[in-house]
Amino acid sequence: MNKKVFIFFPDGVGLRNFAFTDFKKIGEQMGFDITYWNNTVFSLKDNLGFKEVKIEDHIAHPLLPFYSRARKRVELNISRDKFNDEVYPTYKFPFNYSGIKNSLKSLYTQVLIGLYNSEKGLVKLRHKINRLERSTSKYSYCKAQLEKHKPDVVFCTTQRATQSISALLAAKDLGIPTVAFVYSWDNVPKAMQVVETDYYCVWSNLMKEELLKYYPFVKEKQVFVTGTPQFEPHFDTRLKQTKAEFFDKYGLDPNKKYICYSGDDETTSPLDQYYLEDLAYAVRRLNDKGYNLGIIYRKCPVDFTTRYDAVIKANKDIINVLDPLWKQVGEQWNQILPTPEDFKMLYNVCEHSELVTNVCSSTVFDFVAHNKPCIYYNYEQPQLKKGIRDIGQNYKYVHFRSMPSDRAAVFCRDKTELEGLLKQILDGKLSNVEEGKQWFNIVAGERPNGASRCIWEVINTILE
């Protein structure tokens, strides 16, 4: 009899990796009976024809947000003291004191931090969060679903969603093995390990070392290195369009060479529009010298600000906007979901651009998979003032310490360097591709195109 696997989506971030890739198809070929346990507003049954069990009760304990924020800050305080490293406080979002309600929430969270601010306190805090979530109607609801459908294992598609805690506790209390996939390359040092499961799938040996370092309650035998399905589409040549097809579809000039500007979210890069403007100026100067260049601007899928509009309008002769093919199905950032068509678009943007430029994004890996260089902007904008976050702190984060050398990306440390760096790359005299691929392997593992199969092999091992 085929083993029954619940693929659990606590929110929408896992859809890209586990619904829109070949992940399900590979699992079915290996003989698994797959049901999607769906806590999102996106219907996998209606949109993709997948077998799903919908979670309709979304009630978390009213104190959960306070305890979760406290847990994160306590973890970061412990890391700061344990590793004698001031990078950890920079991961904290500031408290909100605008209005009485926000002030009271912030003060209550600070009281909890004071009560639990130690390694022993952190253990108590995690137990407290579990007790709170076991008392909710959602816990009972999820437990009843599991008792009815009797899965052999629950695979949670992200470790960072508080919406997953009650459901996974219900599974553990019923003796059903639970597995969590660590979602993003920067998540472990940032104290984003919200859930405790029986097993964990991580991208690479680096991520495994981090998980064991930051979470001593996790044992080595619980952690499996699998890679991530995130990059698999870049190795799927079925997605490739000819340059002529791609340019024709999106109204690009076949005589131009294009540089991709990959936009960032407002938190990471609040002055991102000015880097796009700098690129436009540099492209104009190069075009005056005989180059024939254009810019493909691909925004961050969860950025709905109008901050780029003036720059795009002023440079509409050289900037082509190719918005990601994502759908907004709710108000929160994690309810803006990718469509399968976006894989094809991103594949061909990477394939048919000369290079990408951005602020500290993982798109460096998307592009090196296509042997294309990446420029990282790493200089302050003159518009920077008190209260606006300097992008320079991004490059001090722990996940950037994984770079094998500072040549794993091309760093632009001064606006005046940009034109020269672009020229060198376009002339074939500068590239980060070789070192970028080494970095890609460190971060995403040795088999970036075989992650889905590897995850199913791990699930099989756990069930056996």
UniProtKB/TrEMBL annotation:
Gene Ontology terms: cellular component: membrane
Gene3D superfamilies found in the cross-reference section: 3.40.50.12580
Record's keyword annotation contains GTP-binding: no
Pfam family, one: Glyphos_transf
Keyword set, alphabetical order: Transferase
Single GO MF annotation: CDP-glycerol glycerophosphotransferase activity
Protein name per the record: UDP-glycosyltransferase
Source taxonomy: Bacteria, Pseudomonadati, Bacteroidota, Flavobacteriia, Flavobacteriales
